Structures are given as C-alpha cells and as structure tokens.
Amino acid sequence: MSAAKPKGFFHRFKVPLIALKILLSFALFAFVVAKVSPRNVLGTLRLADPILLTLSAAVFLVSSLVGSWLWGRLLRAQGVPIPYRKAASYYFVGLFFNNFLPSNIGGDIARISDASKHAHHVSPVFSATLMERLIGVLAIGLLAVVASVTVLEKLNLYAIYASIWIIFLFAVGLFASVFHRGVLMAFEAPFRWLKMHRVERAIARILDDLHGFKDQRDALLAAFLASMVVQVSRIYVHYLVGMALGVRISLSYYFLFVPVLAALVYLAARYVGASKEEIKRAEAPSAP
C-alpha cells in the first residue's frame, strides 16, 4: 500500500485561507466603493444596460471554457491525464481567486494544488501552468503591439509604446528560452552558488519539464491560438461592460490598454518571483 501524499500548505490551511481571501476581497471592494461614493456606484449600476452586461458575461464564460481547455491541453502535453471536466472545474476555482485577489498567484496555487492529484509530481502541473501564463503574456503582447500600430498617429504616448514592445520582446525571449536548456540553467545558478541544493533541484525539475515542451509543438500552437481567442474575448468583455455603463470610446483603445495592464499584472505575479511554497511542493513527489 503506497504512502499517503503529504498535505501541502494549501491543503492544511485551505479553509482559513479561503475565509481570509473572502474577507480581504470584501474589504478591498468596500474600500474602492467608499472612495468613489456608494451612491454614484449604485446610480451607475442602475443605468447599466442589462443586455450588454449579460452578453459580456456570456463572452467571459466562453473565454473561460476555452482557457480551461488550453490549460488542460498543456497538462496533457506534460503527461498529466486530466479530464476536461476536472480541468475546467479547477480552472474556474482558480479564476475565482484570481478575480477576487490583488494578484494571480492565489488562483494558480489553488489550480496547481487541485490538478496535482492527477500527477506523480507537482512539477509538471506547475510547468504547464507557468507555460499557460507565458503564452498568455505572449498573446497579450502581440495584441498590444498590433493595437499600438493602429493608434500610433492618434496618441503620442511613446512611453506606452516602448513598454508594449519591451513586454512583448521579453515574453518572446522567455518563450524562446524554453527550447534551450543551457539558457534555462541560468535560473538555477543563483541557488547553486548559495548552496541551496534542494531549491536548485526543485527548479531544475520544473525547468526540465518546461524544456520538454520543445517536443510538443502541436500543443504549443494549439495553446497559442486558444490563448489569442481568450485574450480577444476578455478585451471584448471590457468593451461590452464599458458600453453597458455608457462609456463610448473606440474598441482600439481597449486593445491597446487592456493588454498592457494585463501583461504587467501577469509578469508581476508570475516572473518577479515564484512562491517558495510552490517550489517546495514541486520538489515533493506524489504517491504513485
């Protein structure tokens, strides 16, 4: 009989963490509403077009279903045999936390924790989630680059244009590094120098899994196309909500500014530094 899989941080403190996240979300929402005046918020919501709001919700639902398929496809490419129904349920749980927390890390931890039940190690789940985020930044950056070209003559926001290209080229560089294991080794070097061998081995396992995507070109292409659908749909959600609230501006502006903000959030949440808890769980094998 195989040993039971040790419970990670998220499993041990799942209920308190969820309660804390809910309280934090309500506190942040109350703070924002108080700053902009509850009467003005309620007045604006009463005048919102219910048809456009319903349509935006439907578009968001479809984009999330496509996003859950994308994530499941990358998981299967990493050898994690997860049914679409399960992938979708885990994805929506993570999506809830991502939308009600200041960053995306909380939702990703929930997804990784749940999907790891279908894998022998957490590292392929972590690497698939990391790749999903990276492809998302790549797709967002491409959309922003295209949008910046279309409005270049209308807006003289050269700092914005420069940041768009920096984000896009940075995402391209990170994506290209996946195909070169020697380049990825640079991420292990600091921990090797600091004699943090356990962390180094955990990162090496994740990077090995990421490098394995070089033989999954079909999965990467399908994921990129699906990510483009997701990102375009999410931009249309913002546009429809704006229309419902009486905001009448060109759709091209949404394609310019929404990708920039989303890409910055993705990069801050994902590439500034991985959670130590995620790295520790990536190191611990699951029960076979």
Q: Could you explain the architecture of this structure?
A:
The chain has one domain. Mean pLDDT is 77; it is low at 1-7 and 269-288. Helix 4 crosses helix 7 (123-150), helix 7 packs across helix 11 (197-211) and helix 7 (123-150) runs antiparallel to helix 13 (251-270). The chain has helices at residues 9-12, 14-36, 38-46, 50-77, 84-99, 105-115, 123-150, 158-177, 181-184, 189-193, 197-211, 217-244, 251-270, 276-283. The termini are close together. Helix content is 76%, strand content 0%. With 288 residues, the chain is mainly α. It is built from 14 helices and no strands.
Short structural description:
With 288 residues, the chain is an all-alpha fold.
| Helical fraction | over 70%
- Report the portion of residues in β strands: under 5%
Count of spatially separate domains:
1
Mean pLDDT: 77
N- to C-terminal separation?
10 Å
Rounded radius of gyration (Å): 20 Å
Number of DSSP-assigned strands:
0
Which labels suit this protein?
288 residues; disordered N terminus; globular; mainly alpha
Topology at a glance:
Elements (H helix, E strand, L loop, with lengths): L8 H4 L1 H23 L1 H9 L3 H28 L6 H16 L5 H11 L7 H28 L7 H20 L3 H4 L4 H5 L3 H15 L5 H28 L6 H20 L5 H8 L5
Helix pairs in contact: 4-5, 4-7, 4-12, 5-6, 7-8, 7-11, 7-12, 7-13, 11-14, 12-13
